[in-house]
Specification:
The protein folds into 3 domains: 233 residues; 248 residues, no CATH class; 118 residues, no CATH class. It is built from 26 helices and 8 strands. β2 and β3 form a beta hairpin. The protein is mostly helical and 807 residues long. α4 runs antiparallel to α12, α14 packs across α15 and α14 runs antiparallel to α16.
Amino acid sequence: MPPEPPVRRSDGAALELLVHGVGGATAQEMLADPYAVRITGDETAAIYRRPADEEAEAHPERYEDGPVPEAYCWSNLTSGNGTRALWLLLLPFMVVNLAHWMRPATNGLGRTQRLYGVLVRLLALTLTVLLTAAACEVALDLVAWQCAGSAGCADDRAWLGFLSAARDGWWAQPGRRLALAALVPAALVGLLWYLSNRTWSAYEAQRPPTDPTAVGSWSEPEAAGADDTDAYEGPAEPATVRPALARPGFWYGRRLVARLRAAHTAAGFLTVAGAITGAAARHDRDASSAVREAIGWLLHSTLVVSGLVVLWVVCSRGRSERRRDGTLDKALISRLPAGSLVLLGLAMVYAAWSRPDWVSSGTLPGAVTFSVLILAQGVLVVALAVAAFALHRRARHARIALYGLGGPAVAMLACALAGVMTGGVAQRVGDWLDGSGTPGMGEGSIPGPPVLLSWQAAVIPVLLVLLLLPVVLLAVRTVRTGRRLAPVVEAEYGSREARVTPDSVRTRRIAGARARAELTDAAPWLVGLVSGASLLLGTGAVLGAWLSGDVPGRAAEGEPALIQSVADTAQALGSWLIGLGFILFVTWGRRAYRDPSARRTIGILWDVGTFWPRASHPFAPPCYAERAVPDLTWRMATWTARTGGRLVISGHSQGSVLAAAAVWQLREGTRHQVALLTYGSPLERLYGRWFPAYFGATPLGDLGREVHCWRNLWRATDPIGGPVRLGGQGDEPAVDHGPLKDPLAYGRTERRPLPEPILGHSDYQADPGFAAERAALLDRLPPALPAQRDGAANQRHGHGRSGRSSA
């Protein structure tokens, strides 16, 4: 076999691909040039260069001192136009979707892993039903049943005059009022379906790279019934499953999203149909109408069967990641929404059947639905906690948040958020229609919402009091930590700077910044406390409603005077707090629609919460990483293949997570030309602790071995970024470099005559060591082959023949 020609380092210029973090940054800021030029991309996400660097590859001699800077801007994926403010309404859906990805990392226990995914999807389904039931409570019960059926309430509102039972019009019958009001929750479900379908097309329908010369196009065999729980089995060896983020189908979940969208849309329509059918059928049974009673039973049976089909669709299949699955399910599943809409139409016709003797009084039958939903959510959360704990016991790790119970805790938060939002809307609408009644007390012309919502309002002040204690403890601990760090700060700068004069104010500020940065590590316990308290108080609210007989009125009716007084006070205060929170919620959303700065703040929330694909709830805000990761992967793969040059992908904050995910998708031959530079990175501090199956110690360790050239910069004053805790043992180079000095100077010096700011999480490029670390990374990259030799390089590295080297 003839000897291979000697390899050489590419003559082309090196490239630095900059990826910004949360909150976004403009290309002009990232490139330090007011005239950035778009190289590729669109208005949503694009890559920019300085005008002088547009043709850098043709003039490599100009870039001997450093790489060509290139900025990838993705902020418009989460905080672009004003419609993003409407995503605030989808907050519970986003939070429950996070719970899916918080599954503990483990080897084996495949059934338990699949059970975990099923339980999260069922919880997500209950949130859709709860939202729809709340819309039915407002439109059907409060407006069409109670207010329109009460002369005192309907006469005060001209827009309800044609529905008033006192006017004896065609719409005066309760069934016809309910059929008309059902259009409101049905329209809400249709809107959610439309937004889910539209955002998928706009954000997530980006196919992963499939060019075998650029990235891996292989696919692992998919077992029958493969679920989202394919375990990561540790360091990759031949015939071993690849890390999840390296699989070709991870960032393309078209089939599951379409499947869940059909099931949740059908569940919403069936909930509305069940609300109006139940009320009409109950009247027909009492009225002894044989024909209508038979039709009611037939409709009820059809709705129950349809509901079971929805449950089967949700439980039967999860994510498929080992291959890019672009197929859709069979006609039965894709036609679920249309079939459910037909059933809703039949239910509306059945309810509109003439019943002259039907009179609406009290509350609409079906108030027990809220109690059933909240109990079901509590049972599912407990079952999820049991499954998570079993998985965590199999592979314990000291850094995992809440001993592997982060997923159940976050799922409980999603349920609590949904309960407060839906209960708040019902309480506010009921108080508005009630007119003179005290909020939440059921006094006035209508009974008001179900008593369970009053109990939910009563437990909110208790939850706030419970939260006050840990907040005070954290504040005291932060102050004590700052005092403890003060002499450390003075000693540290005294050893670095000559003739440092201690300044107590300056020292307190630096030590306080470091102490406050440590608060991030206490977040898991605060989340656990809130979740546990929400579970207990929610259970207490259900028991209180059950003991009260689900009769609207005071929450503690019939109890001793002292207990009733305390309950009434807590209920009134909680009702006002719900109302205030809802008003602030709507105000913030409206301000964000008009104010770009407020919209950017909301965008930060989505930057963190919508990194993950929609795996449990299809109505959650869209996953921007399903656009950003393929963008970055395509750019790195095609640029290195075309030029044969070296590339360093430089990610700050959330951008470092995108960068790592994109590097995971590259072929081994391409990774040999790519270095990874992260700074202010939450890879281990947040993602490793909360998402251990995907960013835990084992997956990150494997990434560190595969990338070869990785450097992570961090500061002790950074509340988000931190070390990744890799390398530094034996011959393996350490990935972390830090903590960096912050501020760069303690006092005024000859080189820095003005006070230096405490940068914390921002402006890592200002550190003198940044450029040096970037240059060292580029120098550590092995010699790159000319473009025409890429195939030989891949063959030598064994691409496509082992689980470890396939991406």
